[in-house]
Amino acid sequence: MKNIFIILTIIIFNSCDNDGNDINEKAKATGVWPVSGTIMTDRLAAPFGPRRLNTIYDFHRGIDIKAPLGTPVHSILDGIVVRSESALPGSSLERFGNFVVISHEGINEPELSQTIYLHLNEILVEVGEKVKMGQIIGEIGKSGVNINTEHLHFEYHIGSNNGEIKSENSRHPLRLLPYEKSIPDVTYNKVDNNFIIDIIQKHHSIDLAEVSILAEGMDKIIINFETKLGLNPEYLDSNTFNGVTILPMNFNETDQHFHLQIIVERNWNSIENIQMELLDVNGDKTIF
Ligand SMILES: [Zn+2]
């Protein structure tokens, strides 16, 4: 068997170098968690990016936090409410239910940005209202078409702060939230034409932004979950593109572990020196 099972020494770089990725230049604003309103990490019910939703692949534009009906929802940073509304069934936003969008321009961010809070039971703020970090803006609910459990779906967007919602603007919410970093467990395994990477992120630290593979004689393969580079630009909810297949396992809510498998199909036969780089939302790089 040609199975090669490798776990290499981990080298961590700090992110000041510039390898063309703009994640590093982004703000380091840190807010409070939207459900607890604290710097203690809220427990996730679904991570950002690739996920398995009832056996179906889906690119999740935000994070989900479960809580009982009526639990307060907090603005994570100072801002101004730019949308506060109930999406009507049959409209393009029908799954949002009662939702709030808060602009953070010029407050804690150097660029246009906004945060989005979906499925609220009650909305407690109005458009134009200034809100403070931690201020209660609504209550947990399950409003929205086909939303079956009480939870907050929370998104962070860049590029626009007027309430306009474009899914390509969504970025990893952990860029704005406090959490304890941990290095994921990574293994990789070459089997004929498949390079199989298993990544386990754990302990609330589900902060993976980019996976890249470098091998001699081959173009660098980049899969970026924030800028969506390397994903299908026509259809974000497809898990296969350009010989790369993304297979998220079911998210384990109990231990907060998230196992993501990536399979890259290329002619690997003659290639031996393969290096992988993982980039987190803070721009910290780990080489495996
Ligand atoms: Zn969600």
Concise structural overview:
By secondary structure, the protein is mostly beta strands. Helix content is 0%, strand content 39%.
Task: Give a verbal description of the structure.
By secondary structure, the chain is an all-beta fold. It has two domains: 4-24 and 180-287, Sandwich (Immunoglobulin-like); 30-175, Glucose Permease (Domain IIA) (Distorted Sandwich), CATH 2.70.70. It contains no helices and 22 strands. The strands form five sheets. Strands 5, 7, 8, 9, 10, 12 and 13 form a seven-stranded antiparallel sheet that branches. It has a six-stranded antiparallel sheet with strand order 1-14-15-20-19-18, with no helix packed on it. A hairpin with a 5-residue loop joins strand 16 and strand 17. Residues 1-27 have low confidence and may be disordered. Residues 46, 60, 62, 64, 153 line the site of zinc ion.
User: Which CATH class of the largest domain applies here?
Assistant: Mainly Beta
Q: Compute the number of helices.
A: 0
Assign the CATH topology of the largest domain. Glucose Permease (Domain IIA)
What percentage of residues falls in helices of 4 or more residues?
Answer: under 10%
The best one-word shape is elongated
Spatial gap, N to C terminus: 23 Å
Key phrases:
288 residues; mainly beta; Glucose Permease (Domain IIA); seven-stranded antiparallel beta sheet; 22 strands; binds zinc ion
